[in-house]
Amino acid sequence: MSTTFWSVVLISCLLLFLAFWVLLPRFFEEPKYQVIKKSGNFEVRSYPKMLIASLVRTGKRDTALRSAFPYLARYIGGKDREGGSISMTVPVMQFKGSKEDEWKISFVMPKKFSYKNIPKPENSEIKLNEMKGVKVAAVRFSGSWDDIEFKRQETLLRNWLEAEGYVNPLRLIYAFYNDPMTPSIFRRNEILMELE
Fold this sequence. Notes:
The protein has 3 helices and 9 strands. With about 200 residues, the protein is of the alpha+beta class.
């Protein structure tokens, strides 16, 4: 076979491979929100209440995230409890805890579930609770899950909020829309700040 043929096959496979990572998160349910204000990569959003499954871990941010993820994935996959699997949703959220090195990692549950009808986890570390409706400021960016980049984006978001007249944002939330195997250039990351 000709070199041209194999070049076309190789390029086609590469494009399919890239499309997989770019398009895959679009097939997952994500919480619906209303955009109140938008400017470039910055938004102010209003989220309705949502049911979340959470696990608390201590340590560095990235270590805590990696530590909690498999347990939450086993819960939604139905491996550690009765009942069928729960559909994957995005984003995976990470909240700063009350202690210096404490993190809460959360999966949003599909909207068809309520606290009454969702399968209960057998792992006592996994907690189900309803997160109240909330208004947040958000910045969207791609790239690796690097603390230096997260701090830079947080500073940009704080500066934008100040320029828009929002003061005293409350808790900080990291939101991840892709798995760790997705090349960083195709990742959708967000930093959210809860507003009063």
